[in-house]
Design brief:
Elements: E1 33-34, H1 35-38, H2 58-64, E2 67-74, H3 80-90, H4 114-119, E3 126-135, E4 142-151, H5 159-167, E5 171-177, H6 184-195, E6 200-205, H7 214-224, E7 228-231, E8 233-236, E9 244-247, E10 252-257, E11 263-267, H8 272-292, H9 294-301, H10 308-320, E12 324-329, H11 338-348, E13 358-361, E14 370-371, E15 381-390, E16 393-402, E17 405-406, E18 410-413, E19 419-421, E20 424-429, E21 432-435, E22 438-439, E23 444-448, E24 457-459, E25 465-466, E26 477-483, H12 489-501, E27 506-509, E28 516-520, H13 523-537, E29 541-543, E30 547-548, E31 551-553, E32 558-566, E33 573-583, E34 594-598, H14 610-621, E35 631-632, E36 634-642, H15 650-664, E37 671-684, H16 688-697, E38 701-708, E39 711-719, H17 726-733, E40 739-749, H18 752-765, H19 767-770
Parallel strand pairs: 2-4, 2-5, 5-6, 6-12, 7-12, 31-35, 34-36
Antiparallel strand pairs: 1-34, 3-4, 8-9, 9-10, 10-11, 13-14, 13-25, 15-16, 15-24, 16-23, 17-22, 18-19, 18-24, 20-21, 20-23, 26-28, 26-29, 26-30, 27-28, 31-37, 32-33, 33-36, 37-39, 37-40, 38-39
Helix pairs in contact: 8-9, 14-15
Main location: mitochondrion
GO molecular function, one term: translation elongation factor activity
Domain Tr-type G: 65-353
Length: 771
């Protein structure tokens, strides 16, 4: 039985009461109830209407069985784009191979942006499609598969690109470096794959490099990523003598010959120098499968050796069931063992029909989620997962989950309920387009001329389905930005476009300084957008000192009893609120760490004023009085109050709640939190003490230090505020040979002296201080 893919934790509310839910329906105790949910509460059992079921036709099954939607994800410089370039070459989508940092200055096909080719990194995810004649490990026959591929960035600053790609994919290739192994961004990508329950196969790249050790990397996959894994290949030759691989499932030696390795030669004769290793690793593969697959486990218990067919079927069952990751070996830059990886994509990853995807009916909020079927005749359900400003207007990338999308047809946006026409339908090949008339379920396409936001659901109007959007991390760094010279309309146009395309890029006007503030996931993230404004919009900008996204939180409970009274002739304002605020930890049920609860009984405050109190509470959280930063980790409980028949209003209760919170805020002993980053530094071993010293200078906590061959890896937790300018310092202490990456981990309290400085600096910006 195949395990269905489940909706990630932040959306678990959509699964309450269904067989897919792993948690019980949460019933608040002590009479507590979220105010905004009070008017919506109704029992799901009262909803007798059931959604119609759609069966897959023979034509649907024939098409979907040979359809794969995959992503290529990894840490920076693991070889994702290089691997994708080889896949496109071997499948016939491109005629020549160009390297990411090649001498011909053409650049890889999937790096279409000029900045990407200059810097040698992927900034935006790029989609393409290809066909591949795959050799089945079960029958050995050649079968033609259609593969949609999304190449994603490896830098943590562009993590949203990976996030929205994995949201709509059915499988992924996790690329790892044979020398570096599991790195910081590998762990982040693994977490994203688990969030969307995406099956993965692993590819250990760069097997030609000195110091390549795939067995250490496989052990890291098991221990650090906590997933069963085993090699399905053994390398023939090591490092620069890598000639091919041994397929442990079919027990064949596979070599790449001809120009750029385009010819795959298979032999039944396993080289004598790898025979013992191949036997050992095949036994290890069977042993790993026996622990997670019932059929293989039964065979081992009966002292029977599984056949090649049984091993291949078990690998597929375990991979699709998210229990196992088969590990392929090769070298993309040396054109070795890429074709067997493509065979593995077709053989072991899920097709669109094997992914359990659900939507919820917007007309029945308490109804259980409705499973979607990739049937061409079913009502249309499609998800817009990425926006891009193209030469012909907004380009919207879509994944069709159910039904058929046709050029010239009318679709409905489930969020806005607007009817729009699809004027042009295309399939993407990096920055090139191929016009099509229609696209079926399970496919990825792009449309022009459809105004929408990232995460919007589109239907044909016969249903009111809406799909849950993707997880969007909060920005961790801010910069003040202003154009050089006179401000032109292009300045706001550029910021508006980037904000719409990238949910992690935020723009706001500071209320005190009146400066334009841009926020993002890191220094590189914001630097790229500033550079794009100069190139694409001809707007040169200057930026101020980076600002860290500090937060405030409370540390103890405090009771409030506040009366808001105002009389100015005629109807006045009156509202009294009584209750308490207390610290709160992150609640996975509601997906946040702030909450408003109402315990009002007997109509002490009319129910129509409760949402105004809730609104006032969340408005008060927007800006703390200690340092002017947003407040997190706080719950307000409203216990009692009173109102006036004439003078009370929603405005009065909103003001009363804000004032009550601010009045008792100092009694809660608030503290300031700062973002902590996980930093990974790689440098030659002789600079180990200098690197550790540089991290200690920046208040870093060393978590791990690993020496391998001639280089070492140091992992530390460092406050973001102390990481500015670290790249220059690292180059200095390592003679330009060191490199680092960092990603956001959590917020932790600042030191008392730092809190005092921040609070003092904020007080000086207040109007009364200026006077």
């Amino acid at each position: 039985m195949q395990v269905p893919r489940r909706v990630p934790t932040p959306w678990s509310w959509a699964l309450k009461g269904t067989r897919l839910s792993r948690t019980c329906l949460h019933v608040p105790c002590m009479g507590r109830r979220a105010a905004s949910a009070a008017a919506m509460a109704r029992k799901a059992s009262d909803l007798s209407s059931e959604s119609p079921k759609y069966e897959l036709s023979e034509a649907d099954m024939k098409r979907i069985n040979f359809q794969r939607n995959i992503g290529v994800s990894a840490h920076i410089d693991s070889g994702k784009t290089t691997l994708t370039e080889r896949i496109l070459y071997y499948t016939g989508r491109i005629r020549e191979i160009h390297e990411v940092r090649g001498r011909d200055a053409v650049g890889a096909k999937m790096d279409s942006m000029e900045l990407e080719r200059e810097k040698g990194i992927t900034i935006q995810s790029a989609a393409t499609f290809c066909d591949w004649n795959s050799s089945s490990p079960i029958t050995g026959d050649k079968e033609k598969y259609a593969i949609n591929i999304i190449d994603t960035p490896g830098h943590v600053d562009f993590t949203i690109e990976v996030e929205r790609a994995l949201r709509v994919l059915d499988g992924a290739i996790l690329v790892l470096c044979a020398v570096a192994g599991v790195q910081s961004q590998t762990t982040t990508v693994d977490r994203q794959m688990r969030r969307y329950n995406v099956p993965r196969i692993s590819f250990i790249n760069k097997m030609d490099r000195p110091g390549a050790n795939p067995w250490r990397v496989i052990n890291q996959i098991r221990t650090k990523l906590k997933i069963a894994a085993a090699a399905v290949h053994v390398p023939i030759g090591v490092e620069d003598e890598l000639r091919g691989v041994v397929d442990l499932v079919r027990w064949k030696a596979v070599y790449n010959e001809g120009e750029k390795g385009i010819d795959v030669v298979e032999s039944d004769e396993i080289p004598a120098d790898v025979m013992e290793l191949a036997k050992e690793k095949r036994a290890e593969l069977i042993e790993q499968l026996a622990e997670i697959d019932e059929e293989i486990g039964d065979l081992i218990l009966c002292d029977e050796m599984p056949t090649n067919v049984q091993i291949a079927e078990a690998i597929r069952r375990a991979t699709v069931g998210l229990k196992f990751s088969p590990v392929f070996l090769g070298s993309a830059i040396k054109n070795t063992a890429v074709q067997p990886l493509l065979d593995g994509v077709c053989s072991y990853l899920a097709n669109p029909a094997e992914s359990t995807v659900t939507a919820h009916d917007t007309t029945q909020p308490a109804a259980p989620p409705i499973p979607l079927t990739p049937a061409a005749e079913a009502p249309l359900v499609a998800l817009a997962f990425k926006l891009e400003e193209g030469r012909f207007g907004q380009l919207t990338y879509m994944r069709v989950y159910q039904g058929t999308l046709k050029k010239g047809s009318h679709v409905f946006n489930a969020r806005t309920d607007k009817k729009v026409k699809v004027p042009r339908l295309v399939r993407m090949h990096s920055n090139e387009m191929e016009d099509i008339d229609s696209i079926g379920p399970g496919e990825i396409c792009a449309v022009f001329g459809v105004e929408c936001s990232s995460g919007d659901t589109f239907t044909d109007g016969t249903t009111s389905f809406s799909m849950t959007s993707m997880y969007v991390p909060e920005p961790v760094i801010s910069l003040a930005i202003k154009p050089i010279g006179q401000e032109t309309p292009n300045f706001s146009r550029a910021l508006g476009r980037f904000q719409k395309e990238d949910p992690t890029f935020k723009v706001h006007i500071d209320s005190e300084s009146k400066e334009t503030i841009i926020s993002g996931m890191g220094e590189l993230h914001l630097e790229i957008y500033v550079e794009r404004m100069r190139r694409e919009y001809n707007v040169a900008c200057t930026t101020g000192k980076p600002r860290v996204a500090y937060r405030e939180t409370i540390t103890q409970r405090a009771d409030f009893h506040f009366t808001h009274k105002k009389q100015t002739g005629g109807a006045g304002q009156f509202a009294r609120v009584i209750g308490y605020v207390e610290p709160m930890v992150f609640d996975p049920e509601i997906g946040r760490d702030t909450q408003f609860e109402s315990l009002i009984m007997g109509g002490a405050i009319p129910s129509n004023y409760i949402p105004a109190c809730e609104k006032g509470f969340f408005e008060a959280l927007g800006k703390g009085t200690l340092s002017g930063n947003p407040i997190v980790g706080c719950r307000m409980v409203l216990q009692d109050g009173s109102y006036h028949v004439v003078d009370s209003s929603e405005l009065a209760f909103r003001i009363a709640t804000i004032s009550a919170f601010r009045e008792i805020y100092t009694q809660t002993r608030p503290i300031i939190l700062e973002p902590i980053m996980t930093v990974e530094v790689i440098a030659p071993s002789e600079f180990q003490s200098a690197v550790i010293g540089s991290l200690n200078q920046r208040r870093g906590t060393i978590l791990d230090s690993e020496v391998r061959d001639e280089e070492f890896v140091c992992t530390a937790e460092v406050p973001l505020n102390d990481m500015f300018g670290y790249s220059s310092q690292l180059r200095g202490v390592t003679q330009g040979k060191g490199e680092f990456s960092m990603e956001y981990k959590t917020h932790l309290p600042v030191l008392p002296n730092v809190q005092k400085e921040l609070a003092e600096a904020y007080r000086k910006t207040l109007p009364q201080a200026k006077k």
